[in-house]
Structure formats: C-alpha cells, structure tokens
Amino acid sequence: MTSMNNEQVIKTKLKIVKQEIRNPWIDLLAVLVALVAGLLVGAVVIVSSGTDATEAYGALYEGAFGTPKAVMQTILQATPLLFTGLAAVVAFRGKIWNIGGEGQFLAGAMMTTWVSIKLANLPQPILVPIIILAAMTGGAVWAGIAGYLRAKFRVNEIIVTVMLNYIIEFIMSYILQNHWTDPKSSYPQSISFAPTTYFPSLFDSKLHIGLILVLVMVLLVYLLLWKTPIGYEIRAIGVNPVAAKFKGINVTRTILLTMLVSGALAGLGGGTEIAGVHHRLRLDISAGYGFTGILVAMMGQLNPFGAIVAAVFFGALINGSYLMQIKSQVPVALVHSIQGVILFFLVIAFVVRQYRIRKVQIDE
Amino acid sequence: MSDILQVTFVVSLLSGMFRMAAPILFAALGELITERSGVLNLGIEGTMLIGGFAGFLATYNTGSLWMGILWAMIAGALMSTLLAFVVVLLKADQTIAGLTINIFAAGVSLYLFRVTFAGVATQNLATVETFEQIPIPLLSKIPFFGEFLFNQHLLTYIVIALVILIHLFLYKSKYGLVLRTIGDNPRAVDMKGVNVTVYQFLGVVFGGVMAGVGGSFLTLASAGLYSPGIVAGRGWIALAIVILGNWKPVNIMFAALLFGFLDTFQLQVQAIGVAFPYQILVSLPYVLTIVVLVYGRAKSGAPLALGNPYLREG
Amino acid sequence: MSAIQDSSVVLEVSNLNKCFGNFVANDQINFNLTAGEIHCLLGENGAGKSTFAKCLYGAYHQDTGTVKVNGFDVKFNSPRDAIHHGIGMVHQHFVLVPTMTVVENIVVGVEKSGISTGIKDAAKKVVALSEKFGVELDPHALVANLAVGQQQWVEILKALFSGVEILILDEPTAALTPQESEQLFSIIKKMTMDGTSVIFITHKLNEVMQVSDRITIFRKGKKVGSVKTSTTNKIELATLMVGRGVHFEVEKETLEPGTLVMEIRDLSASSKDKRESLKSINLSIYQNEILGIAGVGGNGQSELFDAIIGIHPISGGNIYLNGDEITRLKTAKILGKGLASIPSDRMTQGLLLEFTVAENLILGSQWVSPFKSGILLKEKEIIKNAENLIKEYEIATSGPEQVAARLSGGNLQKLILARELSRDITCVMANCPTRGLDVGAIEYVHQRLVELRDQGIGVMLISEDLDEIFNVADRIAVIYQGKIMGEFKTNQTSREQIGLLMAGVTEGIK
C-alpha cells in the first residue's frame, strides 16, 4: 500500500456515495422492495407455524379480490384507511407527527353519532352534509388540542396525540355505557340510527358516497398541498421551519392549521365509517385505522395518489386475512405483523435509496 | 373509616405507588441512557410490549420467573438492536424509526400471542404465578415506613438501586462523562478518537433491555397474565417522565413515583367503590402526562444533540 | 523532542489524495513540517486546507498517500492514533460542550486507567499549563460562561493536555478580536520555543505574513506552492491563492447620503435566558449609503437583524421604515413594506433546499400577485419569474424546476439576492452575505450591494470581516455586547480604532 511503484496499477473500488436528488423510480422501487420483503417475512412466519404459505396467501388473495363481492369489501375496507392515510400525508408533509389519527377517527365517529341521534328527524339530504361537517369538526378539534400545544408551547405532539388516543377511548366508553347505550344489547354500543342518517349507497350495493367523498379528498389534498399558498407554507415548515419563519410564514398558525386539516380528514373517516357502514357507534369501531393510516401515508410516499394504492393494498390485506384465517388457520393478526415488517423495510429502503454505489478509481 | 383503616389505606397507597412506578421507571431509566447518547427512542412502548410478552411466554413455559426476566431482556435487546441498526448505523430519521418499532412490535406480539395461546381455551386464562413481595428483615418491621418501603418485589428494589447506579455512572465515571458529551456534542469526543457509534449503539440497546424488563414487570410482577393492551401507554409515559425528570436519574425516579401514586390512587378509589365513572379515573395518568409536558417544557436539561443523527463526513 | 532541531522534519506527507464522491478535495498533496516552525496553510474557503488537516489528524482517512511522523510511516484510523503520535488539533468551529466545565471538556474521552473521571488531577494540570502560558482560567467554570478567547484557550489546552508535538490550528482567529488574535500569536510562539511545531490554517493574508515561518498555498484541492515567509509578499500570495490578480478594493464613486430610509431608536431586546442582547441601539440608514456594522460574531448582530424583521422579541424602542413604524409587526408585514433581508445562514435561514429554484424564488411572496390568484398559486407566473431571475442574476442551474440543494454556495446566495432584490424595496439588510463564498462570488455580492446603493437604496451590511467592512461600507458602526460603541465615516477612521471598539475598549479614543 505504501510503496509507489513506477508501474501504477489502476484499480477500482466500490464506494457508497450520497445522492442529492431523489429519483421517483428509485422511490417506487424502494416501496416495492419493502412490500415484497414484508410478504416474504410473512411467508416465513406462516411456514414456520406449519402451514403452507402459498395456500395461505392464496386464500388471502381470494378473500380480497376473488369475487366481485370481495373486491367491494376490499374497497369498503380501504376507505377509512385512505381517510386516515390522507390525514397523515397532510401532517407529515409539514413534519407534524400526528400519531393521533386513531383518536381523531373516534372523535369524528362520536360527533357523527351525536348528530345522528339528535337530528334524526331531519331529511337525509340535509342531515348528510351536517354529518360530514360534524365528523370533520370532531376530528379537527381533537387534533387541534395537540396542534395548539405544539404551536403555542412546543409540546411534543407525538406523545400528546398518543395520550389523546387513550383519553378519547375512555370518554367513548363512558358515553356508550351511560348515555348512548342500546338497552337491547349487553355489549356497549349505541342504538341503530335512523335511515335518514345513512350515506346514500352507490350502484345499489354496500358501497356508499363515502367512496366518492374520499376520492374528492384525495384531489383536494393534492390541490391544497401543491397548488395553494397554504399548502406551500405547510410544505415549507416541513422542510425548513427556520427559513419559513425568516420569510414571514406564520409557523405557529401553519402548525395549528396543518393539525386541524389532518384531524378533520381522520374525523371524516370515522364519520364515514358510521354513516356509511355501521350506522351505530361501537367500542371497536376503529380496528387500528389511525395507525394503519400512518403506513398508508408512508407507503404512498406522502403523496395523496400514492396513498390510494397503499390504502387498497392494506385494505386487501385486512379483508383477505379473514378468509385466510378460516381456510388455513393463520390468525388475522399476521396482517399486523406483515404491516410492521413492511414499515420497517420501508424505513431502511428510504435510507438506502439516498445512496448509490459508484465505482471510483484508486491507485495502489 | 377508623384510624387503623385509614393507615392501612395510606400504606397500601404508598406501597402501590412504588409497585406501579417500577415498570415505568425501568423504561424511563433506560430511555435516559439512550437519550443521553443523543438518540431518541420513540419505540419504548412497543419494546415494553415485546418484553412483557417474551417474559410471560418464557415463564409460562419454564415456570421460572427469572427465565422470564432474562427473555424479556433478550427481546428488548433485539428490538432495540433493530432500532440502533437503522438510526445509529444507517442514520435514519429517529422519529419515523421509533414509530416503526411500535407498529412492528404491536403486530408481532399480537400475532405470536394468538399463535402460542391459540390452544388455551380462553386466552386470558393463561396466567403465571407472580413475583412475591420480599420483606427485608428488620427494616420491614419499622412501623408505617417499613410496611411500604421495605416490603416490595425484588425488581422494585433493583430499580431503585439502578437509580443510584446510573447516577454514579453518569456523573462519577469517565464513561458517563463521555456519554453525556455525546448527547450534547458528539464531535467533541469523536475528535478525540472516541467511537461514538459504539456508545450510541450500546445506549440504545441498554434502553431496550430496560424497557423489556419494565414490560415483563407488568406481566410477571403486577398482572400474572398477558394481554395485547397490557402496556397501555406506559412506554409513552416513560418518555414524558424523562422530560419531567429533566434527564436526571433521581428526578426521574420522583417523576415516576408521581405517576405510580396517581395510578395506584385511581385503582384504590375504584376498589373501594366510590361512585365515580371509572373511565375518568383510568384516564388520569394520560391527562397528567399532557399536563406534565406543558409544564415540564421549560426544563433545559435535554441533551443538546438529541435526535440528530451524527455524521462525520459529508 | 527536547532540543530544538531547526531543520529536522517532524511530519512528511507524500501524494495525499482525498475525494468526497466526485469532488476531489485533496489532489496529490506533498507537504513537510520541521520542528519548531509555524507553517501556514493558506487558501480560499473550500481550497481543501481543512480536509488536509483532518486527514493528518485521523478525522478523515485519505484515499491514498503516505504520512510520516518523525520518519516513521503512520496510518491513523481515528484521531486517537494521531493523539498517540503527538498530533493535536484545534478545530475551526469549537467542539466544546457549553453545559460542562472547562476541565470536564478537557478530560472527556482522554485515555486513562480506572473508571473515575479524574477531574481533580486534571484540574491541577490545567491550572499549571495556564500559568505557564500566562492565561487566567478557572478550571471549574462552565464553558458557556467563557469569552470566545478563553474558549479557544480551552481548545488549545485539550491538545496540550495529551502532550502535543504537532499542533494544527484551523482558522483560529475567525472568532477573535484583533487583540485576542495577538495574544494567541504570542502563545503559539511560546509553544514553538519548546519545540512544538504548528500548522496554522487561514485565509487571512495579514496573519500569514505576521505569524508564519513558511507558507503552503492551496487552490481548488491542489497545492500550488510552498514559500518562505521572508521571501514573499501579500500580492504574490494572493495571486497564488486565487489564481489571478485580485482587486482588493471595490470601485465606487462618492455619493451624498439621501433621505432617511430606516431609523432605529433606543432598540432593546432580551434573549431567552433573560440576558440583555440589545442595549438601546440607535442607527439610521440613508439612501445612497452603505452602513457597515462591524463586530466579532455573537455580539448581538443576529439579534439586531432578527429584531428588525420581527423574529426576535423587542423589549423597548422603535423601528421606522420610510417613516412608518414597524416595531413588533409581523415579519410578513415588515418585509412587505420594502425591506429585503439577506440572512447570515443561507442554508437554514434563507432557503428551502428541498424545494425547486422557482419555488424558492417566491418564498415570502406566495400570497402576492401575480404568483397567486384566488386561492390558487399561478404556476406559469412562478416559472416565468424564475426564468427571468435566473437570466438576470446569472444563476447556474439547469432550470426553474431544479432542486435548490443541487446549487453551489455562490449560486445559492445569488438565489437569495435575486429573490430579495427583485421585490419592490427601499432598504436592504445583509448579515454576513459573503461568508463561505469564493473570491469571485464575494466580488459579485459586493458589486451588487454597491449597485443598490447607487440606485438610491439604503443598505445595512453586518459583517465580521473588517476587510469587507472597510471595502464596502460608507459609514461604520461597531457593535459590542449588544451596544453600539461608536459610529464613523469610513474615511475618517482606522482599523485600529474599530478593532479596539470591537473588543470593547473605549479608553484612549476620542
């Protein structure tokens, strides 16, 4: 190594170099790699518990897309995930870590319940818009608490939103037991609501206008983030709050606004789930939709259109897992593991994609 | 209530305070060391969950509580090694990575729980014998104080001892000095040839081991059973306690005792059947956490480089 | 190494190469250092001096090339190996922990047996070393409470503590007053008497001539020459350093100041730790005039800048822009009234590096037509604006859609200038606008500032570089510990006078 001979041997070695710009194709590849890795780990887990992985995954696919009814069910399952996913997209673009999608979802559901009970006599065309507004308000208020504390006192929004998730579960449990209780049921749930509160259905199926609503929201979120000054400001505080402040962007207000919009989207998810599917409030109204929303946003690259694909993927995973459990006795909970693994690989892939391997010449 | 009953009530309150504080304190002390190395581990909640499950499973199968603790430590170490790999070596965003650990842990533990206890008729019936309280001879006979200070689980004694040990480590040993420096300005010791990566890696893994033990305290010393919701936000509360304790071990202990007291208070109030919605009582620790964050924010003891990945070149 | 051996080579470097990605930071560097000499590494920012020094100190690993210490081949895997070989380094940006004491900063990470911190013994040694060099220092003082000069001494002590034979000083005078620099030079000279060799990195020609025995000049990663100080002069050095003749002076005609543009009256402010950061500041900025604010960094310049644009809370006083009071208004309002602000830190305060060039060029104007109509942004106008400004300000970029992070430092500054100066403005505030730029970019910025002045705009130039102040400003105000120490016409004052005021010395000045 030390001697310098006259005959220089040109050698190359591989060097890892940090990439400055992001390539969308590499981003997509990163997502796909994470996805495949997640499913592979899932397969290993299935096999190690003594079940045939192809059979289990076959059942999962069949359950998700095998019949028109299954496809419809998958879409229904994807809808709340897309709402909470959009909520995370908006917040994370501003680097506001709203982990309270779950709580905001429940807040929206509770507001919907309240309106549905109180105003059941109104005609459907009037009541439905009220429900939409109420659900968004519920989610926005619940997120607004964390947003206000973060904006005003710089209190870590992650811990606060997580705490708010717990708190609202207890509030909901209290109200369900004491005020909105269905006397005919031993399980804490509300009475069934009047048909005036139902979201109109689409194509005479279980599908409802919530689907249209969520797709409109996708478009609105896209327009908000990339085509309006407000969205510009949200993204600006996300990449560099100091520079934003130096150029007169009101960071405090933008943080609060981001949380309100994010919460409203999650809340609308909760409202849609009530008014479109269950027509009553139950303790288990959200099967971790708030948390899965984080995954949807991450896998969708914090892009609202990407979130559609991600929501359908996770919706299919959840929906298909029921048939998988019946057919191959693999517990539904496997899906949660796979989600965790995918997210884990996503994080790694996001880091790794910033680098590329280059050949560099060295002389030895 | 007669005087004697009142004393009994107070003693059981204070005794419960230590018992309820211990698991949070384990996790918070671990997180303290992690954060002092400049790394924020937001995955404490999930690590406690995995630790609690691994501990319970090991004890359930072997009958040995200490095997349970050992496996809880191993599980915690594995979980945090994953985190250390992405944040210390790959320099990934610590917030996202920490959240990932939580989602990952929740999914994995739930799945394993369903698979392992699928055969048991009602899953919640799978129980183990918990740790016994160990009265310290003579000291436990001290009236009043002895009854709650010296009549605890062995793990509780251990965690209090750890408070002192970690204090000595941080402020009296050269390794502690290096660790604190890394949390404030890693370059300062990197430029003296200290391997920052090793310290940060070990700091994260230590935090994971402690969170694992904290989780297993819940299953093996408090409940004697496992349920997917058993940690119930205690990992997040541990994070808040580190802030409230201003990143100092003794202060963190007092902060943990405050939460332990509140927790045991609400349980005792429920137990004596006060006509009050239990939901409000149960949610008190979570509300207190938010209050603590608002009022504890002015503290200035946070490691200056907390959460920033350390890169020398580039 | 007891006796002084004048000609003995203690450090020899052959063909050292170091790349970062595609960028060649050091290209075939040969270098030697003899015992007891002060050897300057001279070069512009980014010439590769610091990278070279970090390779010698084991903080970076060279790609190829050999290093010999006292005649033996060495290979440093970490700074610890370098320290073992008696090499110490004081970094350009201090690497101290402000929340810890002097002695804690010194002993941390130093190899020793046992597990205790060894504070007590170390404190004694620190006191002894300080006495030897005639410096006063309490080993148990918190570093945060020390003056900058003392902090630098702590950095040097860190090297001395482990027994240093070769000391590398990277831009050691950057944060010092002229007087503190003098003290540093005398300490260094004392050290060389004991046989210590010093590598002194700087881009300041005056210092080089004053302190060094020998000079090695770096340009764009290459060594362009090595000369004895006694056989060279500043002009030759500057030409070697830049690769062409240098205008030391900015050409500008004399102009009479016009009407008052900005007035600051009795402005006071406090920082978060309740310390008074600005004390009753009075300043006026006129049309056709550049007001230079001279001072050592950290004496309230940033607070002044931030207070004017409404970011730093104001505790008393008033600010007027074109006669309108702007005290405590929202930042957006203040900037909208015709104030251009060029912050000191381009990357963190001035730009959104992840955004495109076009997006950066409307930062702050996102609510203003023609960039917005109704509730939507007008993409066409935003792109058109960018295309025009890229041309006008000669910004080297592939186009409006390029991500700002890809631009070089000089072009990033042009991006900020383009954005700020293209607005409808009457006053410009620039805080260290040439920091870290190469000579070409510095000239560009200076010319732009003078052009603005000629157009009748009031300019406030905050700078830590006295050369720049004397070059560009028409009037100079000196700031020290949040106070204006004095104000002079540039042609009626001297560097000595300004230097003393920068150090807070007022005695003996009229």
Give a concise summary.
Helices cover 69% and strands 5% of the residues of chain A.
Largest sheet of chain C at a glance?
A: 6 strands, mixed
Strands in their spatial order, largest beta sheet of chain B: 1-2
β-sheet strand percentage of chain C: 25-35%
Helix content of chain B: over 70%
- Alpha-beta content class of chain B: mainly alpha
Largest interface: A-B, 47 and 44 residues
Mean of pLDDT of chain C: 86
As a whole number of angstroms, the C-alpha radius of gyration of chain B is 20 Å
What kind of assembly state do the chains in view correspond to? Answer: heterotrimer
Biggest β-sheet description of chain B: 2 strands, antiparallel
Distance between the termini of chain B: 70 Å
User: What is the number of E strands of chain B?
Assistant: 2
How many extended strands of chain C?
Answer: 22
Structure commentary:
The complex is a heterotrimer of chains A (364), B (314) and C (510). With 364 residues, chain A is mainly α. Chain A has helices at 24-48, 53-65, 68-93, 101-118, 124-153, 157-178, 210-227, 229-239, 241-246, 251-278, 289-299, 304-328, 334-352; strands at 10-18, 355-363. By secondary structure, chain B is mainly alpha-helical. In chain B, strands 1-2 form a two-stranded antiparallel sheet. Chain C has helices at residues 49-56, 79-84, 102-107, 119-132, 148-161, 178-193, 205-211, 234-242, 301-308, 331-336, 346-350, 357-360, 379-392, 409-421, 439-454, 466-472, 495-502; strands at residues 9-20, 23-34, 38-42, 64-69, 72-74, 87-90, 166-170, 197-202, 214-219, 222-228, 260-270, 276-286, 290-294, 316-321, 324-325, 339-342, 372-373, 376-377, 427-431, 458-463, 475-480, 483-489. In chain C, the strands form 5 sheets. In chain C, strands 6-7-8-3-9-10 form a 6-stranded mixed beta sheet, with helices on both faces. In chain C, strand 17 (372-373) and strand 18 form a beta hairpin. The model of chain C is unreliable at 1-6 (pLDDT under 50). Classes of the chains: A mainly alpha (364), B mainly alpha (314), C alpha/beta (510). Chains A and B meet through helix 6, helix 11 and helix 13 of A and helix 4, helix 10 and helix 12 of B.
